[in-house]
Amino acid sequence: MDSEGFMQTFQSELKCSICMNYFIDPVTIDCGHSFCRPCLCLCWEEEQTPKSCPECRTISEKSDFQTNIVLKRLASLARQARAPHIISSEEQICGTHGEAKGLFCAVDKTLLCGTCSECPEHAAHSHSPVQWAAEECRETLLKRMGPLWKMNREMQDNLNQETNKIQSLENYVTLRKVMIKLQYQRIHLFLQKEEQFHLETLEKEAKETLQELKESVFRMTRQKETLKEKYRMLTEMCHSADMELLQDLGNVLEMTELVQMQNPQPVNPEFTCWPVTGMLDMLNNFRVENVLNQKMYIRNVRLSEDNASVTFEDEPHGASRQPQSERFAAWGAQAFTSGRKYWEVDVTQNSDWILGVCKDVWTSDTDISIDSEGAFFLFSMKVNDHYTLSTNSPPLIQYVKRPLGRVGVFLDYDNGTVSFYDVCKGSLIYSSLPSSFSSPLKPYLFLSSL
Q: Which residues does the UniProt record annotate as the domain B30.2/SPRY (predicted)?
C-alpha cells in the first residue's frame, strides 16, 4: 500500500460511520465501535430500548460514555490537514487582495486574508488560522450542545411522564366513575330506606291520630247526648212544683257541674316532620339573597275564610306604632319567570305570618291587595290559643308543627312548584303539585310580631 492509500485508509478510520464525517466528541461504546457523541445520541433517540450498536447491533448496557481523547485529537488533526486543499471557492478568496482567507478575526467574527489582517481596522485584533479557530468553535458548540441534550433528555422524561399520565388518568376516570356510581347507589339506597321509614311513620301516626279522632268523636257524641239529656231534665225540673224543685236543687246543680267538668277536649292532630337528608344542601345551590326589598307597614289584615284573598290595610300617617305589635308586608321588586330560586325568612319573633309567592301586588296609598288565584302562600295564624298552618293553593290545613325559626321557600318555576321548609329541622312543610306558571311570580312576606 502506497503512502497515499495508507493516508486515505487512516483518515477513513477517523470518520463516524453514522454521519461519514470526521469525529466530533467521539465515544467508544461497549462493543468497541466509535461514533460522534451527537450522532449516537440522535440515533439512539429514535430507537426503542434496548440500545444497540449502529454497526454490529450489539446491545449496549450503558448509554453514558467518556470522550475518546486520542481519537478526538486525531480527528482534529485530520480536519486541519485537509483544510488547505479545500480553499478554492470564490467566497474563500479575498476579493480585494486575491488571497485565500486563511485567518479568522475573533473580534469581528470574520474571515481575513493575510493582507487584510494587517489593515488598521484589524491590526489590533486577535487573529488565528482558520483551522484552529474552527476547532475552537467546535468545542464551543459542543459545550452548548451538552446542556441542550440534557434538556432534551429531561424533556423526554417529562414527555414520558405526561404520556403515562394519559393512561393513568383514563384508568382513574374509569375507576372514579365506578366509585361515584357506587356512592350514589349507597345514597339512593339510604334515601329509599329513609323515605320508607318516613312513610311508615306517617302511616302509623295517621292511624293513631285517626283512632284518637274517632274516640274523640265518640266521646263528644256521648257527651252531647248526656248534656242534651241533662238539659231536658233541667227543663222538666223548671216545670216541677216549688217544693220539689227546691228539695232537688242541690243534687241537680252538683250533677250539672260534674257533667260540665267532664267535657272532652278536641284533638289537635300534629304529625312528626322528619328531616330529609341532604335536602337543604341541595336547596342552597339555588339560594338568592335580598329578594324582599320593598316594605310597607300594616295596620290590619283581612283574610277570607277560605284563604281566597288577603287584604292588608296600611298604617295611617301619623299613627303611633307599638314595637311589640308591629306588622309589615314585604315583597320583591323583581319577578321570577324561570329557573329555580330558594330563599329563607326568619319568623322567630313573629306570631302570625304569611309567606310565599304571588303573581302581583296591588298597592295604593291605604292598602295592599293580593288575589290568591295567582298566589301560593303558607299561613301561620293563631286561632283559639292554638297556632295553625295552612295553604291557600289548595286551601288546606297543614297538620305539622309550626316552625319556630327560619322558613325556606323554594320556587321551581320550570316545573311549576312552590315548596316550604322548616330550616331548623331540615324538613318539608308543604310542596304544591306540579303545574304550569304563566305569569311572573314575586316573593312575598307578611309578619306580625308577638
A: 270-450
